[in-house]
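Morning run. Coffee first, then this:
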Amino acid sequence: MGIEFDEVAAARLAACLTEVALRLRASGAGRRARAETALQDFHGAYARLFAAACTVESEDRGRLTRALEDLTVQLHVVTRQADEERRRLEAHTAWQHRERERDHALVAVGAPLGPALDWASAAWDPEPSDAPVLPTPVSAAFRARSRQRSSGGGGSTAGRSGADPRRLRQFSGSAGAQDAATEQDLHRVRNAWAGFTDRCGWVPVDEATLLAGFGDYLAENVEDTAWVGRIASAFTAAGSGVSLADGVLDVAGASTLPAGLQRLFDPAATSAEVAAAWSVLGLSEHDLRALPLTTTLQIANLDGVPAAARDIASRAVLQAALGNPERVYRMLGLPYTYGAVTVDEFRQQVAALWKGVRRADRLAQGLDAPTAAVAQVVGFGASDGALVAAVSLGDLDTASNVTVNVPGATTTLDSTDGQVRAAKDLAHAAARLAPASSFAVVSWIGYRAPELVEVPAQRRAIVGGAALASFLDGVHDSRDGNAPGRLTVLGHSYGSAVAVEAAAQTRYRIDAVVTYGSVGFTDDTRPEHLNVGAVFATEGDRDHTARLGRIGRTDPRDLPGVHVFSAEAGPGTEAVTGHDMYPSTGVGYLSPDATAQRHIAEIIATGRPG
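And here it is:
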């Protein structure tokens, strides 16, 4: 008889809480410095409102950080208690076994020796405690405070405020980029908490307001950022060096989004809640095209919104980035993000993405029926200072068979053209095996891929895995109950680390995770820890890069429960000649004549390699 307590789930949550708390604590100084810079030329009632909002944010950040750290301490306590209870149960079970052996011995020697045996048992082998170790109830408590953003002047011109809009925009841009990173942290904590509560039912939970409070804190931050941006626009429109009536700023600073869109953009909303809010809105294609670019950018990257709508929004943002790259670069908060792509790199990658999208549109016309002859851009934005996007060949809203391919280290949007060509060949190979199925193959460049020196670390995989888990759950939720019949996730090189991090966090089960040329799994990752039906792995004999990348990680082919398939030459197919996914020369894992590609297509189409 055991207890329901998964040490891995508890350790994952504790590690996640520790890292998020450190990131929150470290980001406070930068936000405070940018607020102080904005206040240099800010005066009047609105300057006081801004300063008060910044004070509340700073205090709530500290309280939230302490709540995360306190929960970490509680997890260590219940983990120790679980270990004590398991050891107590084992000891008591072993003693009962010995007691039964002594009873048998008593029968053998007869009743006269019974008292002596009983005395010896009590003296030298006393019964261990039968009182269970009770776990300390866990309390995850935090509540954020609301912030005032109106002077309450009712349109009066008595009070006036002035500011330098340039400084306000600098604050808004940098805070927005920081809030985007915090939103990813919220997703990670939510997923890790869900895993803990699902697998550690032995531990009672007294209060669980932390996640809701974290979401409210982030929502207040997001509204602060938007509010400051609207105030900056009002000062810009009025002209340089002027002051404005507080009543005018009350109107200019108010959010103009209807309640439905506010629910849609709630940073604490799950993809299921986003899908429900989207369904209520009932926006048409013409409505989407009429929205302002800031709203369109949010919809483009909102998991839970149907792929057709995300495609319209993503292409609109992409067109704007081609026509006015500096504007979109600022909208994404990239000038204020440490280590972000430069403006020149932004232009180059936007052009490459556009080239890849045009290629996808042409390739889609050759997809095999009943697969829809469409290509969809299902996301275009920024993550950790990198440009990210996703392109689907086939209709992601209706396809019965969905595949999401995650690339490896050093990948940027410059690779979009090759990614979609690989997707087309994979879709064609799978369609030959299952001609009655419709397919959607997504090239998901949705995370900041590591540089080569970063490959031994797991940070990019952790952040990318949370984003990928949200995307995968969003595919299910956006289809209004019409879930795909099969969902497969492919991970190349470092992308395999991202894929398994996502598979440990998704709400909906993945049918298969396929790793090829993998950099390996962390020591605490096993197939049974993943929300997946089956895990497959392959690696070419001439792929020396993958072996170098596995420093500190385990080759998935060595793990029990992982199904290994060949990447070497077979009848009518060729061996992989290196590490690449889809090279222009040689044979890559997804090259159309590769053995690996044939087997991956078989897994996509039928659930197993032939």
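The first strand starts at residue 138 and ends at 140. Good start to the day.
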